[in-house]
Amino acid sequence: MSDREEKIAQAVDQLCMDLKRRQMSGSFHVATRAVVLLRNVVSHMRWKTADDLMVVVRTIGKRLIDAQPNETTVGCMVRRVLYIIRDEYDNAITGLDSVPERIGDGGFGGDGDDDDDASDASDSGSDSAAVGGAAGPATTAAAAAASSAAASRSSPNKHVVTRSQSGSGALSTLNQQSLYTMFDRGDVEAEKRTAGLSMVIPQLKTSIIEAIKELLEEIESSASNIAVRALEHVHENEVIMTFGRSRTVELFLRDAARKRKFSLIVAEAAPFYYGQDLAKNMAAVGVDTTVITDSAAFAMMARVNKVVIGTHTVMADGGLIALNGLHAVCLAAKRHEVPVLVCAGIFKLSPLYLCSYDQDTFNNLVAPSDVLRFEEGDVVSHARVHNPVFDFVPAHLVTLIISNIGGHAPSYVYRLLQDHYHEADYDLS
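The structure assignment produced for this chain is given below.
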C-alpha cells in the first residue's frame, strides 16, 4: 500500500469515527466531507477501469453507511459519485469508432493509476498516460480510434465529394455512409454495450474528478441558489411560520426580506431551541419576528399564509425526515389548508423509502437530559424518557419542495431520482 493509499484509509477511518460519534452537525457538512473523501479516493487509489473504481467506491461507501445508517446524506453522496462514474464513462465511449482494450482481452492500456493528484491541470497528461499508456501488445483507445479513422479514410465504402468532383466552390468535403458502414457502426455500439464498464479509457480519471468538483460546487452553492427563489414565493405583508433553525431557510427568508415586508412566526423546536437563534438573527435584519412554543403552532396557524421549513432528507416518495416536532406543524397546516414549502438541496434527495416507523430504525435517540435533567432524580428513576432528533412527515402534508434547480411537487421526486442516481446503485448493500 502506497503512502497516499494509507492516508486515504486513515481518512475513511476518521470519517467513520466522526459519524459514529455524531461529531458532525447538518447534512451540508456531512455531504461535503463525504464528497471530498471520495474525490481523493478517485485521485489516489489504484484502479484500471470504471468497474474497478466503482467496486472501490461501493466498498468505502458501505463502510461509511454502516458507521451511521441514519445519516442518509452519506449514502446519497456515494450514489451521486457512482452515477458520475457511469456518466463520464458513457460520455467517453460515445463516438468511438472502435472498442478499446478491456480486462480479459490480453492486456491493458496501462495500470490505470497515477500517484499524482489528477485534479491538478498539470497532472492531466500523466493521468492519461497512466490510464491509457501502452503495455506490451495492447492497444489504447486513442490508438484504436486513430487507426479506425485512418481506415475509414481509405475505405471504398465512403464516398468523398470534393470541389473538383462537384464543380461547385461552396461544397467542400462530404462523407456519406453506405448501408454497410451503418450496420458496421451498429455492431461497434453493440460491442460497447456488451463490454460494460471494463474498457480502459484515457483521461477518465481527470473527467471524473472534474465532475466531482462540480458536485462540490453544487453542494456549496445550493443554499444560495434556493435563496434567490424567495421572491417568487414570499409576498408583501404575508405571515410566515417556520420551525427551528435551518441554514437554508434562514438564507431564504433573509433574501425575501430585502424586498418584501412580512411577519415571521418561529416555533422554538424544543428541547434544543434552535428556533430562538433563528428568531434573533431575523429580528436583527428588521423582520417582525414572534417566537412561540411548539404546542402553540396549531393555535397560530389560522393567521399564517404559508409554512417554510427545512429538512434533513427528502425520501423517494416525497416524504421528509425532518426535525422532531415538524409532523405536528404540518398536520396543523393541512387542517387549515396552509401550503407547506420545503427548502432542500438536491444533495438531500434519497432514493430510499421509510419502511418502518420504529424509532430505532430511522431516528437518532440522543441523551434525555435536554428533556428531563438528571438532577430531578425522583422523577427520572420512575420515568422512561426518549429524546428523538427526527420526525417523519408524509408526502401528502408537503405542498412544494424548493431545491437549487427549481420547485417540485412531492410526486415529481421520482423524476429527480432518475436524473441524479442510477437504479443499480439504489441498494449499496
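Interim note for the steering committee: The two ends are 26 Å apart (CA to CA). The longest strand covers residues 239-243.
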